[in-house]
Amino acid sequence: MSLRFQRLVLILITLTMILAAILLILNNVRENISYFYTPSEINNSNFAIDKRMRIGGFVEKNSFNKISSSSFRFRITDEKKSIAVTFNGILPDLFREGQGAVIEGFFVNNITFNATSVFAKHDENYMPASIKKDLKNTGYWNKKYK
Amino acid sequence: MSSLIGFLSLVFAIGINFYLLISKYIFKFKNLPFYLFIRLSSLLTLLSFFALMYAYIVSDFSNYNVFQNSHSNKPLIYKIAGTWGNHEGSMLLWMTVLSIYSFFFSFTKNIEDSFKRSTLLIQAFIHIMFGLFVVLTSNPFLVNSIFVEEGLGLNPILQDPGLAVHPPILYAGYVGYSIVFSISIAGLFQNRDDEWLHVAKKWSLISWTFLTGGIALGSYWAYYELGWGGWWFWDPVENVSLMPWIAGLALVHSLMMIRGEQALIRWIVFLSILCFSLSVFGTFLVRSGILTSVHSFAADSSRGIFILLIFFIITGFGFLVFLLKEPKKSYSLKLLLINKASALVINNILMVIATLTILLGTIYPIIIEVLNNKRISVGGPYFNSTVIPIMIPGFLLMSVAPILSWQTNKIKNSKLYVLAFIFLSVAVLIQSFYLTFNTWGFIGILIGSWIILASIIAIFFSYKTKLNIKFFQIINPHVAHIGVGIAIIGITCSSVLKSEFEFNLNEGDKFEIYDTKILFKKIETKNEINFQSLRAKFLFDLGNKEIKEIQAGKNYYPVSKMITSEAGILHQWYRDIYFILGDQKNDQWFVKVLINPFVSFIWLGVLIMIYSGLIAVTRR
Questions:
Q1: Are A24 and B386 inside 8 Å of each other by CB?
Q2: Is the pLDDT of residue B329 over 80?
Q3: Do A54 and B377 touch (CB under 8 A)?
Q4: Which has more confidence, A120 or B489?
Q5: Which residues of A touch B564 (CB under 8 A)?
Q6: Which chain A residue has its CA at the smallest distance from B357's CA?
């Protein structure tokens, strides 16, 4: 084999790898992203049963209900609309009524959201930037949060 | 008082560097005690850092930063760690590490003086930019305007010995690429092709080793502290550290090529610029508050814009010089179908593709939000299903690459390798049918064990075994690859073969997982120095009258009114039994148990990689 031919083969291998990588990325980006909404943003255009999504807002006061030591019901609100959530598992340490939380999961029927994971804000003043922007817009913004 | 000293010495350090730059390019002074000034500036930055640390140790709440992030009844180690447990302090640490690198670099021998000066001037330039950033937007020495007796406390999640040392080691990795960057740029300017590559190799190995250690520490911390049972979550901040790590790995590998007569100098320069750009970009993503994670301390847009500016200056400057300056000598690379050079080239391309894939997944949400105001998140599955397939050909190549030859297409002992590979495939196939068959599990275990086996064969058939330092230096690449193989086995097993159990238990209950008998002994609460602890004690009957106890529970920190989970882990060499204590109702406790097989292999593999990184530094 001439040196030139060998180089050609190497270049072809490289191009194939790059192509494969691009295909992989395009294919996976479509499948593996989840959209993020606040409760009042959920409407007919983006609502679908069993569609994976993230919802961010506050845990509504007096809505937390412990059914057993591992299953819970609560509501997530942005002061305009609230959504009933069920969750099985261990809640994060910082999960509390009146505090910010992001839930990931899907709607099991028209009104109930089944959360597969719950994220709570990380410290006293911490708030995800995306929720913060929305809450500022809706006027429900506590100055204490940075 | 210490705050004032700290602030002044930081300003002086920046001033000295500024003076060096203008005196070189504007006034063109000769006879300047150049190295003395560089070292003085480094020591002043260090002094400034120690002044802040001192303020933390004595709990000087007249410093606003200390007041915000510390509390007097904290163990000493967390007072020290509090220095970098916040945005301002961690940026000062960034600068301190930069200065330490400059300081040590100024003592390097066997390198031309003018080259050394250019490198240090570029370092001084970076120091000035970050110095201005610290002084103007994130000053850790601000005075507290009101008199207070007590501070607000350090985030309890950060109060952990593993995390106390995680930031300095990680920064030693990130910032180490600054010196590699400066060396490459200076190399382009000076147009001396050979010597600087050897120097760059040493420093890039040092940074890579530190970065490996830093990432592993963070990951180990996440494993036992966050209580989620995993050690990698494809969190944006983790991705940000992984990108320079992979790019740095590519850099280290292409620097290996310079031992032959061929050199891909431009590629090496490109990678060095890329590594440092990714490090600064990571600093920008984490510190700007664009990403939300444990690591983002505060969202302040002026800071974000400032770091973005620094990022553009550094990246723009680097790549501009790269495009304008042509290296003088350009060897043509001897690429054959399967020789060492082409294997390294393919491996480099794969690593860069992997880096770009991670970069895309990390910034995709930001792009989408800017473009059409929709918020999305790219989760772990994206990264798993793109990055891993991209890396697999590289792993296969890795197992044989060290025994390929530089000059020909021949492989030594090729028959032996083919036989060994077939034998191993059959063995792994049988083994995986015996357990539960899983395609990814099969591929992972096969690749991991193949890398180990091929490296061991290479060690014993290619070199004479001797017990001296030189022997360990020669077999070092193989040893590093054995580490990777072990880590791959650990990663595969712990993610594919893991199992989960859930229990509702009363105190005194007995239960079984597989064949292990476990007793839920009792719940205990205790008051510690700065927190209250609640612990569930579990006793394991491991047979042969061997009984082990582990504790899982929660800590409550009254100062910041926060609860943290403390997972209980029983370490066995082939698996970890991982306990998370959940909620309680009517005296029944919810307990989640994860069986993570072969997790210890991951840490062992990483330790081997760090070891071989250190050995490689000693080799000329």
A1: yes
A2: no
A3: yes
A4: B489
A5: 93
A6: A25
Q: Quick check: A21 and B502 CB within 8 A? A: no
Question: Which chain B residues have a beta carbon less than 8 Å from that of A17?
Answer: 346, 349-350, 353, 390, 393
Q: Cβ B336–A6 below 8 Å, yes or no?
A: yes
Give pLDDT tens digits for B489-505: 999 999 888 888 988 88
User: Coil, strand or helix: which one is A42?
Assistant: coil
H helices present in B83-194, as ranges: 87-105, 113-137, 161-190
Tokens of B494: 């712990």
Q: Which residue of A has its CA nearest to B590?
A: A69
Domain count, chain B: 3
Q: What is the mean pLDDT of residues B357-376?
A: 84
Residues B445 and B490 in one domain: yes
For residue B552, is pLDDT > 70? Answer: yes
* pLDDT bracket for residue B234 (50, 70, 90): confident
Q: Which two tokens stand for residue B36?
A: 């003395």
CA-nearest residue to A18 within chain B is: B353
Token pair of B454 as six digits = 């091929």
**Structure tokens belonging to residue B252:** 């280290």
User: What distance in Å separates the CA atoms of residue B617 and residue B620, rounded to the nearest whole number?
Assistant: 8
Q: Is residue B105 part of a domain?
A: no
For the record, the structure tokens of B163 come out as 């995390």
CA nearest neighbour of B471 among B587, B615, B576 = B615
CA nearest to B306, candidates B325, B280, B330, B324: B280
Q: At what angle do helices B161-190 and B265-288 cross, to 10 degrees?
A: 140
Contact list, B561 vs chain A (CB under 8 Å): 124
Q: Is residue B233 domain-shared with residue B349, that is, in the same domain? A: yes
Angle at B209 between CA B166 and CA B17, to 5 degrees: 80
Same domain, B244 and B267: yes
Check residue B58 and report its DSSP letter.
T
Domain assignment of residue B548, given as a range: 499-597
* B568-619 pLDDT, tens digit each: 898 888 889 999 888 888 888 888 899 999 999 999 999 999 999 999 998 7
Beta carbons of B349 and A18 less than 8 Å apart: yes
> B289 and B304 in contact (C-beta within 8 Å)?
yes
ipTM over 0.85 threshold: no
The answer to whether residue B319 is domain-embedded is yes
CA distance B197 to B403: 23
Calculate how close chain B gets to A70, using CA atoms only, in Å.
Answer: 6
Q: Are residues B391 and B278 in the same domain?
A: yes
Instruction: Tell me how far apart the terminal alpha carbons of chain B are, to the nearest angstrom.
Output: 47
Under an 8 A CB cutoff, do A122 and B157 touch? yes
Q: Which of B336, B385, B560 sits opposite A28 (nearest CB)?
A: B385
Examine the domain organization and report whether B451 and B530 are in the same domain. no
At A143, list the tokens: 């100055």
Whole-angstrom Cα distance, residue A11 to residue B304? Answer: 40
The predicted pLDDT at position A142 comes to 43
Q: Does residue B251 lie within any of the structural domains?
A: yes
- The answer to whether B189 touches B325, Cβ cutoff 8 Å, is yes
Helix axes B265-288, B87-105, angle to 10 degrees: 160
Interval B5-28: pLDDT, tens = 999 999 999 999 999 998 877 776
User: Do residues B592 and B474 share a domain?
Assistant: no
Provide the shortest C-alpha distance from residue B579 to chain A (in Å). Answer: 12
